[in-house]
Amino acid sequence: MSEPTAAQLKDEGNELFKKQDYAIALDDKNAVLYANRAACNHALNKYLDAVDDAHRATEIDPSYAKGWSRLAASRDDWGRSAHAWQKALDALPKTKLSPAERQQKDHVQIKPIVPFSINEKLGKFPWQVATDMLPELRRAGQEKASSSAWVIALAYEEFNEGVEMMKGMKITPQPGTPDGFVHHGNLEGLTLLSNGFMRDDRVFHINQPKWIDMYNQQVFFEVTARKAWDSEGLETVKELAQKRLKENGWDDVRPALAVTVRGWIMRAALDGGLKQQPQAGVEYYRRALDFVEWGRTIWKDVPKSDRGVVFEHSFLIGVRSLYLKMFMNAYTDDPGLNSKFPLEQLKEEAEDLLKETDIAVQTRDNSEPVDPGFISSFIVYPRGLAHALLGFYHVQSARYSSDPVERMFSFVKAAGEYTRASSKYAEDDELRAWYFNCTLDCLRSAGAPVDNFLMVAFGLRDTVPKMKKIWAISELAMGGRDQKIQENLDRADEFMKRVT
């Protein structure tokens, strides 16, 4: 039997893609097949593999518009993505476009993304209020050590320092260099940005239009200086890291690994948040999580001073927490019993997070000094998150159950998990109030006794004014937090009237 031609492989691949059966054989000189496999990898959320194939397609045929559009869709930053979209547009005919080409042109022209910007006119944001509170909290000592102001203010301190380093980047023309420019900056920008974000992801904000450009320049600078891996797949990075370690030692590999892992974390945040692609966010957090777990295993006897902070237990907990939040968001985008992000997996990984925090408590070196927000950020709050995710699991289980009794018990279990979640957050943290409110929703759905509802409502009512001192303006607040809380407090008032 003769070998299939490239055209036959293309037609077969197109049919399989429509059926979501992603298997494509390649002709090394056919850009179409590489572009098609890039589309398959993109559909499978394998974005780095998609970039590799799309880039190969553009190398084989720089005039193939679809190759450039595949590359743009999979790119890891807005600057390079916009460049690829423009290349795709330039490659299309200017006149007499076919229906497919016209559709592609329309698709390309709507792709630029406007990053989210905070509105300073709204008032002070939580990190600003909390920073103003720090002198008073320091004077109060242990009495105020659990305030959420410590968490968000210290997260902001690191995040903002990273932003300032981005802003300080200088780029000057330099003939003879690969891109014609020389970058002058600080190599700790990505570390500080990701540290602040991992302490409390609510600190992430963009307050100027060139933020994304500055971020991309910072990443390019650090990846180049540290010789980090910015486009290789997970297994490739593992292999290359071990080879480089044998050749050059930890002083060379440690900063490269740090930039690589932190780059994945921030890419997950940007894709899952600003681009609103939680499936992509899940992939990159999962990549970072798998790599950290792998490194902690094979280099378990290597001291922190050699292997670096990214393999510390607190770092693992931080990555797992971010991953699980994004996993829940991805499930919300693709809900149901046949979701690509199964509820059972969410439950299992939330239970793993609880185990991780238990281990952290048991093994923590108390002689190592930490700031008041550190324990909350990397032990206490992750426990609260895990319980909240288990609450979410039980709520979703109730919604998909056809048995009224089973549904009621699921809501009761959810109420219990949300109650435990609220107890892990500081009394002035918005999440304490929010999870109290989630508890009330579950109690109502379960048909629980009025006394139980009123008891939780009493705790919620006490928390709200403390919460608003710091968290009057937040993403949760702008999403209707206060209105939803007030609805349950009004119900509690109505119940009280009936009781009396």
What does this entry look like structurally?
By secondary structure, the chain is mainly α. The protein is built from 22 helices and two strands. Strands 1-2 form a two-stranded antiparallel sheet. Helix 8 (148-167) runs antiparallel to helix 9 and helix 20 (450-471) packs antiparallel against helix 22 (481-499). The longest helix is centred in the last third of the chain and has 28 residues, at 372-399.
Key attributes of the depicted protein:
mainly alpha, about 0% strand
Strands of the largest sheet, in order across it? 1-2
Return the structural class. mainly alpha
Helix percentage:
over 70%
Shape: globular
Based on CA atoms alone, the radius of gyration comes out at 25 Å
How many distinct beta strands? 2
Q: How are helices and strands ordered from N to C? A: HHHHHHHHEEHHHHHHHHHHHHHH
Number of H/I helices = 22
Largest sheet descriptor: 2 strands, antiparallel
Mean pLDDT: 85
Strand content is: under 5%
Stretches with pLDDT under 50, minimum 5 residues: 104-117
Question: N-to-C terminal Cα separation, in Å?
Answer: 88 Å
